[in-house]
TrEMBL record:
It comes from the Bacteria. Keywords: Membrane, Transmembrane, Transmembrane helix. The keyword Electron transport does not apply. The chain crosses the membrane at residues 9-28, 34-50, 57-75, 81-102, 109-130, 136-160, 167-189, 195-214. This is YhhN-like protein. It comes from Flavobacterium swingsii.
Length: 224
């Protein structure tokens, strides 16, 4: 196997893994579901290390924090939910830092305006499920704000610069917005397999599209 083919193989493996996780969740094959869930982020980490010119520690830390959050949420214990809540918010902080250089004096007001509808939507959902969030509900408000910011940056950045890099960030931001809303609804309000499938697909694809954005952003800076 040529080393140049490794990224393509890892991308194919990533989406095969996503398909297996989705199907095993639908038909109830627990062993396949756990295995595919456990290796999804490690595949993305390896893919990033293989293709990145910069190999940013912050992005790797973000993926590891997301994996930790997933583990804590998976076991569904009160203490696990608390740790998962903080890991999830920390993951979003890392992503925001990675896109923060896109914000300038000229566009920061537009980013803020674009983020508001998402944030209001999240506050509404949080209000519905606030009794289930416990004393750390404020962390979810922070998480909602950070996710809304990512979505707002994705939209305005694409409007101002419709290149491939901006396209991938737009898709990632929108899917992160959809995912956290679906996560809240599925976990605390209406637990159905169809909503869970939305959570699965939106988060897995949003991770991949953010990876694509970051790679193009790194290559752009490397060339310049």
């Amino acid at each position: 196997m040529k080393l140049t083919n490794l990224p393509k193989i890892l991308i194919i493996l990533y989406f095969i893994n996503l398909f297996l996780y989705s199907i095993s969740s639908l038909i109830g094959i627990e062993e396949v579901k756990i295995f595919s869930w456990a290796i999804r982020i490690p595949i993305l980490v390896v893919l990033y290390l293989v293709t990145s010119k910069k190999r940013q520690i912050l992005y790797i830390a973000a993926l590891l924090l997301y994996q930790l959050a997933s583990v804590y949420f998976y076991f569904d214990t009160p203490s696990g939910f608390i740790f998962g809540t903080f890991c999830s918010a920390s993951f979003k902080i890392c992503l925001v830092i990675l896109i923060l250089d896109l914000v300038t004096k000229n566009n920061r007001f537009a980013f803020a305006i674009a983020s508001i509808p998402f944030f209001v939507f999240y506050l509404y959902i949080i209000e519905i499920v606030i009794s289930s969030l416990g004393e750390f509900y404020f962390v979810w408000i922070i998480n909602a704000f950070l996710t809304s910011f990512i979505g707002g940056v994705g939209i305005i950045n694409y409007i101002n610069n419709s290149d491939k890099k901006s396209f991938w960030l737009l898709i990632s931001g929108i899917l992160f917005v959809i995912q956290i809303g679906a996560f809240f609804i599925n976990k605390f309000y209406l637990k159905t397999e169809s909503i869970y499938q939305i959570v699965i697909l939106s988060y897995a694809i949003s991770h991949f599209t953010f990876y694509k954005f970051l790679i193009l952003k790194e290559e752009e800076k490397y060339v310049n």
